Amino acid sequence: MRAYFDNAATTPVDEAVFEEMKPYLLNKYGNPSSIHSHGREVRSALERSRKKVADILNTSPSEIFFTSGGTEADNTALKCTIACKGIEHLITSKIEHHAVLHTAEELEKTGKVKLHFVELENDGQVKYDHLEELLKAHRGNVMVSLMHANNEIGNVTDIDRVGEMCEEYDAIFHSDTVQTVGHFRHDLQQLKAHFIVGSAHKLHGPKGVGFLHVRHDKKITPFIHGGAQERNMRGGTENVSGIIGLAKALEISYQHQLDHRQHIEGLKSRMIHKLREQIEDIHFNGTSGDIQNSLYTVLNVCLPPSEDNDMLLFNLDINGVSASGGSACSSGSNIGSHVLAELKRDHSRGAVRFSFSKYTTNEEVDFAVEKLAEIVGVGV
Ligand code: PLP
């Protein structure tokens, strides 16, 4: 058996998504900017996809811009807001995905903004009192970027609360929602975020396509200059089949969200239970062990200290289990996770992130636990 537990890094494409994309790879190849019928046909499919995404998120199609994925959407929100709104302060956290963290650091390094890191609780949760202090100190001249769910440790930020706080202190709010779009419901009429982002490959869509939601009252300048595509917000011929696939993937994930959630929470709870049964002194990093209050697709396991922990992912891999040590860019390597480094934890302990999808099975969970127990070799 080979079992895949790296769905926070990427998910397999749903067959129905692939079927929806296929005609736009083979037969419907017109450029959506062309005015002839080949182009117009594709343009209307693209705009139907935009409407589908907007309807699902309860917003207007005019607020949805397709991008090459989550990273580009995060870069656009941060860099273009700072550039065109004259904002001097940026508040974020040290456990953001690098798409946000490295962008924020670059903005500070080039003198465009002063960066402030919100303090975190021992388990990585945002300290909301500290966030409020920072907001108060820079009222009216500040942008906040805090992720909805952390891709490594599954912590969920209360973005409704952050949105309320940002409104009170006249701050611009961006949330990296890459790990929650399609897994949680976002109602953009209720949520007080100016920008959210999505990435198709996290929800059984294709790689290399995503979106940026820009609230109507926070128009920004483009990040990628070129043609007039995306209503002058992103130059470059659109990734048509990718956009069709993104909209279909989002549609499927919303249609079946409760069932998928129930299935995945069952898998996670089974894994927690079996790990506790079979491995001594086991804990869970961040809040990922708390099924009700974490990103249900992620479980970050904290293993007893051992000299062999550096080889954990390699050993799991040769035993048929694909898991990760953190974000995709550090998985399989011994570069430490910047997220785990910020947690108050015993850093000699090993960590493995298992992330689940609708396709993961109980048998795969049992197999992974058995292999991990064999590798770690500290039975209860
Ligand atoms: N933000 C988060 C929280 C992520 O997990 C990821 C992907 O790992 C990204 C951003 C980047 O998304 P993409 O791979 O679409 O560029």
Question: Tags for this entry?
Answer:
alpha/beta, seven-stranded mixed sheet, three-stranded antiparallel sheet, 11 helices, 38% helix, globular, binds pyridoxal-5'-phosphate
Explain what this protein looks like in three dimensions.
This protein is of the alpha/beta class and 380 residues long. 38% of the residues lie in helices and 13% in strands. The protein is built from eleven helices and twelve strands. It has helices spanning 15-26, 37-56, 70-85, 98-109, 128-137, 159-168, 229-232, 240-255, 257-278, 312-318, 362-376, and strands at 3-4, 64-67, 89-92, 114-117, 142-145, 172-175, 195-199, 210-214, 283-284, 298-305, 321-322, 349-355. Strands 2-8-7-6-5-3-4 form a seven-stranded mixed sheet, sandwiched between helices. The chain has a three-stranded antiparallel sheet with strand order 9-10-12, with helices on one face. Helix 9 (257-278) packs parallel to helix 11. Mean pLDDT is 95; it is low at 327-334. The structure holds pyridoxal-5'-phosphate. Residues 69-71, 74, 97, 99, 147, 151, 176, 178-179, 199, 210, 327-328 line the site of pyridoxal-5'-phosphate (PLP).
